[in-house]
Amino acid sequence: MSEKIAIYPGSFDPVTYGHLDIIRRGLSVFDHIIVAVLNNSRKDPLFTVNERVSLLKTATEGLGSVSVDSFDGLLMDYVHKKNVKIVLRGLRAISDFEYELQIASINKSLNPEIETCFMMTSNRFSFLSSSMVKEVAKYGGSVHDLVPEAVEQAIKQKYLTGGNGL
Ligand code: ADP
Question: Is the pTM of this model over 0.90?
Answer without folding.
Answer: yes
